[in-house]
Amino acid sequence: MIKAVFFDLDGTVLDTNELILQSFRHAFRERLNITVPDETILTFFGEPLHYSMSKYSDDVEPLLETYREFNWKHHDSMVEPFHGTIEALRELKEMGLYLGIITSKRRNVAMKGIDLFDLAKYFDVIVTPEDTEEHKPKAGPLLKACELLGIEDPSTTMMVGDSTYDILCGKNANASTVAVRYSKISLDILKSVSPDFLVDSLLEIPGIVKGSDNKNKG
Question: Which SUPFAM superfamilies does the protein's record reference (predicted)?
Fold first, then answer.
């Protein structure tokens, strides 16, 4: 029986794709005077920002500073929930489930997006990189969310995300996994890590949870 559903934030709950792309472009251009193809930048989605930047410079702090300044400045005008997000979260809460966010984004920026659309009321736990030594794709963030909720068996949880890092985090913790087809990461790459489910919308999640519960009862 599924007790909790955990979501990645960027690219899963909130459409931040264009903001992230433009933030990377700006940082690489301003600090390194280079243009990195969007196809390459898309492969960074789901990674800790520090790790992505370290591929291009041994001194990542200036890159991080420039990225974050641009991202913060343009955040509110370039972010919105994906279609069906709020309706899905509301239905899942009505089903009595715990809900959580597990993100690679720093807490202050993650909360900026969550608060912008009054989403905090749906989430019982929000795990950011400041909370764990391990980060996605390792199991640590999901295990931390379980710890905070008092869930002893991670197999009673579900991880929903748009990147291989999200799916592997769930798998490494023995949780069920759901990948969203609207990810900017290619479907073939997502399928390569064998998510348990693929969905076109978060509106499908309540049905998957009900189906999993009925299967377990049977």
Answer: HAD-like (SSF56784)
